[in-house]
Amino acid sequence: MPTTDRERLQGLARRRGVITARAARRQAIHSQQLTRLVADGTLERIARGHYRLAGRPITEHHALAMTARAAPRGVICLLSALGYHGIGTQLPAAVWIAIERGTRAPRLAQVPLQVIRSTGAAFAEGIEIHRIEGETVRVFGVAKTLADLFKHRSKVGIDVAIEALREAWRRKMFTMEALDRAARACRVERVMRPYVEAVVA
């Protein structure tokens, strides 16, 4: 059992991947302890009030974990969701995140964000929960991401949506039932129909 504040902080960092000054306060640990652990090289500060064990490898989805930390109710979407699912060749310069209309957009100094506002079924449909670097990250599933690409084709390009649809169908990454449900939620059934028919023919 950890007995000192130092040991407790290290244990938290190992279990959670990232610890915050707020989490330390909840454990009745003074923030000075975090400063000391950073000074002696045990922890590293990765963002304001956020720390992790020094030398811990950063995953390829580190930016998604940081975004989820800043916007826990947001959902990784569009090009960033494509990248997470390993579809296509897009390398977005920003993290694409969907938030509900009426909520404040997150801000991150270290990660550029592309915010999409949504509501109702278009926001709630197809959310998957994943763990990245100890963080709970909400990501739209493949079918919902495809429907979103067609809905926001003016932002991402229709060619990107078609390429993703073809690849995901070839790799059997979604069912037609899930795609129909997502298309209805996004109100893009008519838009998608000719492309889906061409891909499955």
Major β-sheet annotation: 3 strands, antiparallel
What distance separates the N and C termini? 61 Å
Strand content: 15-25%
3D shape: elongated
Overall mean pLDDT stands at: 88
Radius of gyration over C-alpha positions, nearest whole angstrom: 20 Å
Low-confidence stretches: none
Order of helices and strands: HEHHEEHEHEEHEEHHHHH
Structural class by SSE content: alpha+beta
**Strands of the largest sheet, in order across it?**
1-3-2
Number of DSSP strand runs: 8
Number of domains as seen in the coordinates: 2
Plain-language structure description:
With 201 residues, this protein is α+β, with helices and mostly antiparallel strands. It folds into two domains: 5-53; 62-200, no CATH class. It has eleven helices and eight strands. The chain has helices at residues 5-16, 21-26, 31-39, 62-70, 78-85, 121-124, 142-151, 153-156, 158-170, 176-186, 189-200; strands at residues 19-20, 43-47, 50-53, 75-76, 95-100, 113-118, 127-132, 135-140. Helix 7 (142-151) runs antiparallel to helix 9 (158-170). The longest helix has 13 residues, at 158-170. The radius of gyration is 20 Å and the shape is elongated. It starts with a helix and ends with a helix. The mean pLDDT is 88.
